[in-house]
Design a protein that fits this description.
The structure is a homodimer of 444-residue chains.
Chain A: E1 8-16, E2 24-33, E3 36-42, E4 51-53, E5 57-61, E6 63-68, H1 84-99, H2 102-118, E7 121-128, H3 131-141, E8 144-151, H4 165-176, E9 183-189, H5 197-210, E10 213-218, H6 223-232, H7 236-243, E11 250-254, H8 260-269, E12 272-275, H9 277-282, H10 290-295, E13 300-302, H11 315-330, H12 338-345, H13 347-352, E14 370-374, H14 386-392, E15 399-404, E16 407-411, E17 414-415, H15 420-442
Parallel strand pairs in A: 1-4, 1-5, 6-7, 7-8, 8-9, 9-10, 10-11, 11-12, 12-13
Antiparallel strand pairs in A: 1-2, 2-3, 5-14, 14-15, 15-16, 16-17
Amino acid sequence: MPSENFDLVIAGGTLLTLSADMKIIEDATIGIRDGCIALVDAGFRPRAARTIDATGCLVLPGLVNTHTHLPMVCFRGLADDLPLMDWLQHHIFPMEARFVDKEMVNDGALLAMAEMILSGTTTVCDGYFFENQIAEAALSCGLRAVVSQGFADFATPDNPRYEKMMAAADRFAARWLPHAPLITPAFFCHSPYTCSPQTLVNVKAAARGAGILYLTHLLENQSEIDTIEGRYGKKPVQHLYDLGVLDERTIAVHCNWMSPDDIALFADLGVSVSHNPASSMKLAAGIAPVPDMLARGVAVGLGTDGSASNNDLDLFQEMDLAAKIHKVTQLDPTVMSAETVVRMATIEGARVLGLDALIGSVETGKRADLILVDMNQPHLTPLYNPYSHLVYAVRGADVKTSIIDGRIVMENRRLLTIDLAAAMEKVRAIGERIAAEHHQVVSR
Amino acid sequence: MPSENFDLVIAGGTLLTLSADMKIIEDATIGIRDGCIALVDAGFRPRAARTIDATGCLVLPGLVNTHTHLPMVCFRGLADDLPLMDWLQHHIFPMEARFVDKEMVNDGALLAMAEMILSGTTTVCDGYFFENQIAEAALSCGLRAVVSQGFADFATPDNPRYEKMMAAADRFAARWLPHAPLITPAFFCHSPYTCSPQTLVNVKAAARGAGILYLTHLLENQSEIDTIEGRYGKKPVQHLYDLGVLDERTIAVHCNWMSPDDIALFADLGVSVSHNPASSMKLAAGIAPVPDMLARGVAVGLGTDGSASNNDLDLFQEMDLAAKIHKVTQLDPTVMSAETVVRMATIEGARVLGLDALIGSVETGKRADLILVDMNQPHLTPLYNPYSHLVYAVRGADVKTSIIDGRIVMENRRLLTIDLAAAMEKVRAIGERIAAEHHQVVSR
């Protein structure tokens, strides 16, 4: 093996493999060939077309963001600290109706992808309108993406005629399935309160037919329970269960108001969960019972949600919040250890997305999604426990180099696949138009 | 005025004055002379020995950290996710007993000060052992500091003979009072459960005699209520009130378990509060009722607490947490607006420390403590509301330049008063010794 040639070698760092045994390798050697991890060893530098010196860095699997709405970077900080329905109905929805088009989705997504790559994310699961544009943006910059075509029982910016949604979705899945596992299509029913039972069932049938993931927002706010009980005489999880849409290829996003019975059902059925602490805290939506879910074996990954309710896409901050919020609400500092949280941001996030055989840990045979974190920083000195630092002290800006599918997409903080200045300028221009219109809307 | 000469001019940025009317000035001109803000205007560049171009930056008062234990950077990440008493008694206290000396305090404080300056803090209120060393470190690097000599009813690393503490404290106050307002001495009684009534009263009398601040940890954990009730037959706030130590020159740190009556008493007496959300969340200590305190007019500032329970000294993260934690626990997104939180990190923090006539806002006549935040970043694009970005999206690493008392201490992310590489190397060496000893202690 040492005499083999590699396309790329990462040598000299401290490797957190995130393998099942959580093996840590000092002075690690990672050999990459054809986008795959072909060698994980220590202490030498094999022949390679390119070698990156990782001395002084932690090397770990790239982070997995299991839920966001990328183009919402265009609304970042437009309206904050408002009641949820006021925020949605008087700020976000009117601005989306006015401004969401292919160009805004493309430009917003590209800036969001730049921000994510710069902060260590290598895989994202997105759900928004014009999802073809998201997929194309991801393909262009080399970000691994699960792109989820959205459904709701009303006309959307990308489907002004509701009855055409399903045919468009089938075309979307067929178009992107050949790009897996870099780009993977999925279907996203917005929620049990915006999708009829028929929509929920039909979309799940289509997802099963295509062999792809099915997502829905679920139990973000307490009020959803009353809404669904009022309509269907049962709680949301029971409603989805009775419709037959819950299985091991279903991801429920938020899950802030899960009962113990709901959690047991998810565990039995293999339903996965995306936990978005920053957004749920900022919107005052609630706190998901994540320690209880993990104790029952439910796969839980981390998500940032869209930038309008966070307001950034930095998974390091999400890790910090995920570790702290459950400690204080349970008054128990032993829940949500740093190791547990790093697993949620990597291998468990991959498991949520059904990609854990391919990514989420640094092991031979997996796709080469890796990040290097520069530990030579005052706020990371001294270093006793790498997991502790990753959760409680590292920030996105400490990520030095990012590799996705064997391709270097950022090196020494410089993006190699996105023109950052151009991406910022385009979103600034969109922001100026939004600001002018928003000013008129709120002053009416 | 435009024809006057200044030592330093900051021109071209968007200035958040944090004045009472929260005035924002575009293309601002700030003239500095003899460490003071001599001019606040807009749109021109007066003659000056030095001009800094702040185009593309937010300019705002430097941040005020109202509570920390600086040398605890040496224990950052040594032990996490443990029950409080296990953490203190089996990890932190034994390591402090073994390693805290003048050199460790000096080296740890200097690295902590580097980290703080790099993340936008210009004033810190510290409490630890060997506080003379902290004051000297602050003086050497130009950081504004309230340095609090600690008291407890047992021998400490800096006072092996308890009965000598008071005399040492008087010398400490006399030594540092001439350095105010850059360095301001204060006295810190550790807590009502580690200080006897006599100690609490004597130290307050000495603080009053010297005309300096008096601090104590208070109501960090719920168990403190039982402890104090068991000893004195009353709750902690009533206990301190009956001892006569609560007044407008007293700062209570944490205050996680304040009753409405406690809050009313603080409001009546003018007692100030240091809120440390990251530490209280990580230690699962509790959540201070900050919105209620603010509604009653209690001055509340932000603090990071020591790095062992945070695990960094970044006040931008503290702002983010302070905004989010109260929203979700009260299920009300309108509490703790971004503006309110930025005020807590600046002018209200200054008010807590009794320094609001001198710092905390950018107004003529105040000392020149200013930071420039580089907004030309993907995660800060677009920009609708500067307060929103400061709280929800800016990170310490976005601070470009810091000025304290008119002196440029960091410029373009480069520290000008601290040898950062040397500071990191010294703490790394301390960390290696601590790690070896800690390994022996925990494996016993």
